[in-house]
Every structure is written in C-alpha cells, then in structure tokens.
UniProtKB/TrEMBL annotation:
Single biological process term from Gene Ontology: proteolysis
Record domain Peptidase M3A/M3B catalytic: where: 270-719
Species for this entry: Alteromonas australica
Keywords, comma-separated and alphabetical: Hydrolase, Metal-binding, Metalloprotease, Protease, Signal, Zinc
Family of this protein: Belongs to the peptidase M3 family.
Signal peptide, first to last residue: 1-21
Protein name listed in UniProt: oligopeptidase A
Length: 728
C-alpha cells in the first residue's frame, strides 16, 4: 500500500546467503588471513569496502561514497565472498552448525557494506550514470548469487547439518536459522542437475536485468513527466501545497510556475483540491500511465517476459505456478488461502464504493456540475462528501499535522512502548548522503544503553524513488560480538517553503507512523544471528501497520497535533469529527489496494502465454466488477512491488493478511485496562511481535501475543464492513 520495507536489490537471496555481517569467516586460518589481506589492500583505495568507522560502532561513510568506486567494489567483494564460500564448502572437517551455518552467517561482510551504499544510489540518489552501472551489475550479481546457490559441496554440508542429530540439540533460533539456510538452497535450484541447473541460472540472470529495467523505466516517467501550471490554475489548492509546488518548479528552473510532480505525494492532494477538472484528468493520467506510454520506457513487454521466465523457473522445481512456489513458506501457505482472504473482503469493499460514488454523484448533481464521477473526480468529490457528512475539511486537519511535531509524537510512542529515547546527533558527527538527512541516537531511557542510530530522509527530490520505505544499514546481532542498529526511514513529502512548517495529509501522517514502525522493529530486535532478520512477507508489514494506531490515541492528539501558526492544540470537536469519519472512504482505499493484490495473484497463477498485460489487467478487473470510478493503486506497468524485484511478487496480498493481524491485535489493546498504553499488553507486543524478528515462526509468535490465531472478523469491524457469511 505504498508502505513497505525496501530490499536493496532484486537479488535478496545474495544478501540472505552471503552478506549478513560485518565480520569475515573464520572457517580456516588460511582463508581468514587471505581475506584480511585482500580487504586491507582494497580498503586503501575503495571506501565502499572498508569497515564502518567512527562513533556508534562505526557508521557508513556516506560523505565519501563515489559512484566510480561501485563496480570495482562489487567485483572485489564478490571475489572475497566466493573465497569464503569455497573455504566453507571444502572444509575437510565434518559439517557442524559452527563450521557451516555460523560460518555462512559471518561471511560476506564486504559485500554487505557495498550493498548499503548501492541501496542509497538505487533509492535515494539515482542518476542516469548510476542506472547505466546498475544495468551492467544486475546480471553479474545474479550470476554470483546462482554460483553460490548451485555450489553442490556447500549445499551438501548445509543439508548434512539440517538432517543431523546435532540439529535437535540446537536452540530454537539456531534450528530456525538452519532451516532457513537449507530452505533457501532447496527452493532456489540447488537440487537441480545438468541442463536444468544451467537454465535456472540463465533465467535468474535475465530476470535481474528485466527487474532493473522495469524500475528504471518507472523512475524515468516520474522524472520526465512533470505538470507545470500557472497562477490562474491554482483555484482550490491549499496555500501550503501552492508554496511547495512553486518551490518544486523553482528547483527545476521553471520560475514563475508551479510543479505537480509525478509522485503520489504531489498527485494525491492536487486531485483532492483542484477545482480544474481538465487539469485533474491530466495529472491523473500522467500518474497512472507511468510505464504505459508506448515509448522507450513502456513496461508491458517487460512484464510478459518476467512472468514467462518466472513460470519457467518454478516449473523446473516442480511447481504448477509461481504463486504456489512463492507462498509455500509464507503464512498463507498457498495462493488459494491468500485469494480466499481477498474474496471475503472484496464484495463488501466494492459495495461500499457504490455507496461512496452515489454520495459523490448527488453532490455533483446538486452543484450542477453536469458530470458523471470519473476516477479523476473521486478524491475531489470524496472531500466534499467528507465535509458534508462529517463537516470535516482535510485541509483544516492538515494545519495541525506538522512533520516535525509528528516526529516528536513518534518518539513519544517509542518511549512509552519500547522505553527508547531519541537524541539528535550533532550535524557533521555522522556522515549523511544529502543535507536533508538528519540522524538521532537511540538509547534505553532507563539504563542509557546505546541501542542504535535512526536516519531520516523525509523529502522528495529528483533521483529519489517515489513512496516511503524503511531499511537498515546494520542489524542487531550478538553471535560474533554485539552489533548495534543503524536504521533508516525515507519518505517523499513535499518540503514546505523556507522557514515554514511542512504540513502533510492524514494519510501521509499514517504512512509516517507506519514506516517508523519498521524502524522500531529493527531497533527493538533481540536476536543472535543475521538470518533471523529475514522477513516473512505476509507478516513483516503487520508490526508497522499496527503502529499506525497510536496516531489516533488521545496522548498523541492532545500533545502533538498543534496548529502550525498559532501553536493551539487541535480542537476537541475536530478530533471527534476525525474519529467519526475513521471509516470514511474505506471502500476506495480497500478496493484500490485489493485490486492490485488480486491482480498480482492472478498474474502469477495464470499461464503467461495467455497474458497480454494491458488486456489481462482490463479483462480480469471487469470480471471482478471493479468499479469504473477507481483504478488499481499500482497499475501493472508501474507495479514496482511485483515487477522491479521479487520481494512482493505473488505476495502483495500480504498487506491485507497483515491487516487482519493488525485489526485483531489492536482489539487486544482496546480490551485492556490501559488501552493502547497498557503495560502488560505492551510488554507482550515488544517481546513476541517486535524483538523476536524471524527467530520464531510468525504464527507461533502471534499466538503467544494474543493467545489464539487472528480472526478476519476484526478487520471487517475495523473497516465498518458487514461480517462475511463464512466467518473464521
């Protein structure tokens, strides 16, 4: 739903297998000595390979990163890592947890560091020069990953540990880490032979190139398509938006104009407030046609090729379709269970849309607009309905949603639930990759113990991908000496004018809290091994979705929602209106998301030879009775979650799966004496839902928190939908 933790690259398996720690392998003295020597030599010339230096356990040298170092750094890091892998695979000692699994956990320190810098260029400061390098690197990285996966000696040693008597004596976390290691090999072609193994590698290499090309095409359309308007076209737009649009135009050398950039954070408010219907349609089409303009950056052919290759690859492993393979180790287990959840909610969602459109059409008719509600009208007239039904003006609410104060609110919640304290780090003490990036030290409020750092990059700019995401530059581990956390949140808010507060919408405020939930998930980790940080896609969004609920607690509202000019707290009557309207427009929000999630599953359970993306999207949505006034949240040609990597492919439904957990967990707090700040429920939240990461099966962890499995009924109540007939 635009709220996700990004992976640094489409090749997540590379990181999972071999780039998990700041330390080198100690599997043999000769390997350790050789690697230390090569690292030292490379480190003299290439900052991207060097161990993080400086305060707080070492920090990335973002101020010294140079794009010219990227390719040689990857080449050297891959060479070092392959030597480590060979040492583990050819160790003459009998395979044990220590000399196989722990050795793999330690391997790849150099590669992990290079990926940290690569992720910054990829997501935060892309450029044509970087994209050219990225295009050359993608197939090389894929080949590297495949070489590790297809190392027969290595897989044999991992399998031996997995099937050994020692396995039964390991701790629960060690058993799970071993299972995950074995599973990654077995599910990614390690069991194949001969031509099948060769073809598997070829497919991975081509997919890596296609994923990169898809992503770069979308970014190109976001950068190339900017709608410039003039002063006489500003009717209806809030002053804060006008100011930001002028600053965006000035930054692009278009003085005297106002820029509507091709991002959701710019498109959404424009469609909500602009009275110019013709311009609304233009901005809407520009945004939703990203990757679908029939030009050099069109993604339709790429989609078909990606689907064809994914289908062929899983067929080599014996699966009927890609979704079957993808969901096997997820909470849903299979695409049928995922689709069943979708279909329980879908009828209620589109029925609500019909009601919402009727309300909007009535207002348009009463005003003599002489229109039929179209997709570019939905937000505009929904806002009118909001004001008519609830006397709630989104722009009025926005005056109390200052980015800085909301950040303080997030710190408050983190202090109450996690006992964390956030202290600004003095400028210049920690290197950053852009002047907008600020850093805070996170400590335990009681003991003063250093927990980690939190980096914040909040504003949109050229070269930064759209959306909001969280990531880590270093995760907490203790298996080889304690490593503290370097966490990061990234957004695309439109920066307020110099000296003025940056005001955001309620939806954006929820996103801000959501991404901070990911950061708290990183910062609260209490696990031993790097692999315990690997996420389960239909569970990993749950914790962050749950944190959104604290935005509406009285403690946050009363202290931090203050007017940006007067400093006065938000009026109680306005808060009451917000709460009464909490399920307003839920049909739109649920339907636009679910259309994308359902289409994702359909793409990955259908024979690709029968798919023409443009036709397939249209026909499948027609069969679902998709309301014509709404479009998919992510139309296929710019559905980056699914086609720019494999992280959310056949798994975008996971947001809804996580929403069920979220609604059910929220009710646990609502039932508690202390509400959302209840100490006992809060302790269980941290212990079982945040700190454990993936060191425990998610289903088991949730049962320990709640005492039972989650129920879909909670989601239906939360959204104001009627309960499904076949209840859980």
């Amino acid at each position: 739903m635009g709220k996700l933790k990004t992976s640094l690259t489409a090749l997540a398996v590379v990181v999972a297998l071999s780039a998990c720690s700041e330390q080198k392998t100690t599997s043999s003295p000769s390997a350790e000595s050789e690697n230390a020597s090569s690292t030292s030599q490379a480190g003299e010339n290439n900052i991207l390979l060097q161990a993080f230096k400086g305060p707080y356990g070492g920090v990335p040298a973002f101020d010294k990163m140079s794009l010219s170092d990227l390719e040689p750094a990857f080449e050297k890091a891959m060479a070092i890592n392959l030597k480590e892998i060979e040492a583990i695979a050819n160790n003459p000692a009998p395979p044990t947890f220590e000399n196989v699994i722990v050795a793999l956990e330690k391997a790849g320190a150099e590669l992990s560091r290079v990926y940290t810098y690569y992720g910054i260029w990829r997501s935060n400061k892309s450029s044509p020069e970087f994209r050219e390098i990225q295009g050359k690197l993608s197939p090389k990285l894929s080949a590297f990953s495949t070489k590790i996966i297809q190392n027969e000696k290595l897989f044999a040693r991992v399998k031996a540990v997995y099937e050994s008597d020692e396995m039964k004596q390991l701790t629960p976390e060690e058993q799970r880490v071993t299972w995950m290691r074995y599973n990654r090999f077995a599910r990614n072609g390690a069991t194949l032979d001969g031509e099948a193994k060769k073809r598997y590698a070829e497919i991975n290499q081509e997919l890596a190139t296609l994923h990169t090309q898809f992503s770069n095409n979308v970014l190109a359309d976001e950068e190339n398509y900017v709608t410039y308007i003039t002063e006489d076209q500003l009717d209806g737009l809030p002053a804060s938006f006008v100011t930001a649009a002028k600053a965006a135009a000035d930054a692009r050398g278009e003085s005297g104009k106002y820029a509507i950039t091709n991002t959701r954070s710019s498109m959404d408010p424009f469609l909500t407030y602009s009275t110019n219907r013709e311009l609304r349609e233009k901005v809407w089409r520009t945004y939703y046609n990203r990757g679908d303009n029939g030009d050099t950056f069109d993604n339709n052919d790429i989609i078909k090729r990606i689907l064809t290759l994914r289908d062929e690859r899983v067929a080599l492993l014996g699966y009927d379709n890609y979704a079957q393979w993808r969901l096997e180790d997820r909470m849903a287990k299979n695409p049928e269970n995922a689709m069943d959840l979708m279909m329980k909610v879908w009828p209620a969602a589109i029925a609500r849309v019909e009601e919402e459109v009727a309300d909007m059409q009535a207002i348009a008719d009463a005003e003599g607009a002489d229109i039929t509600i179209a997709p570019w009208d939905y937000r505009f007239y929904a806002e009118k309905v909001r004001q008519a039904k609830y006397d709630l003006d989104s722009n009025e609410v926005k005056q109390y949603l200052q980015l800085g104060k909301l950040r303080e609110a997030m710190f408050y919640v983190a202090g109450r639930l996690f006992n964390f304290n956030f202290t600004p780090v003095e400028a210049g003490k920690v290197p950053v990759f852009h002047e907008d990036v600020k850093v805070w030290e996170v400590t335990d409020k009681t003991t003063g113990e250093h927990i980690g750092l939190w980096y914040l990059d909040p504003f949109a700019r050229k070269g930064k991908r759209s959306g909001a995401w969280a990531t880590t530059y270093r995760s907490y581990t203790t298996f080889d000496g304690k490593k503290t956390v370097l966490s990061s949140n990234n957004s695309n808010f439109v920066k307020g004018a110099e000296g003025e507060a940056t005001l955001i919408s309620w939806d954006d405020a929820e996103t801000y809290f959501h991404e901070f939930g990911h950061a708290l998930h990183f910062l609260s980790a209490n696990v031993k091994y790097p692999s315990s940080h690997s996420g389960v896609r239909d569970y990993t969004e749950f914790q962050s979705q749950l944190l959104e609920r604290w935005l509406t607690t009285d403690e946050v509202i009363n202290q931090f929602l203050v007017h940006h000019e007067t400093g006065e707290p938000i009026p109680a009557q306005l808060v009451e209106k917000i709460k009464k309207a909490s399920t307003f427009n839920e049909g739109f929000k649920t339907t636009e998301y679910m259309a994308s999630a359902i289409m994702d599953l359909k793409y990955h359970t259908t024979d690709p030879s029968k798919i023409d993306p443009d036709t397939f999207e249209r026909e499948q949505l027609e069969q679902l009775d998709m309301p014509e006034e709404i479009v998919m949240r992510h139309r296929s040609p710019h559905f980056g979650h699914v086609f720019s990597s494999e992280g959310y492919a056949a798994a975008y439904y996971g947001y809804m799966w996580a929403e069920v957990l979220t609604a059910d967990a929220a009710e646990a707090f609502m039932e508690a004496p202390g509400g959302f700040y209840d100490e006992e429920v809060g302790e269980r939240l941290v212990k079982y839902l945040f700190s454990v990461r993936n060191a425990m099966d998610p289903a088991e962890a949730y049962r320990k928190f709640r005492g039972r499995d989650a129920k879909v009924d909670a989601l239906m109540r939360d959204r104001g939908f009627p309960l499904p007939e076949n209840k859980n």
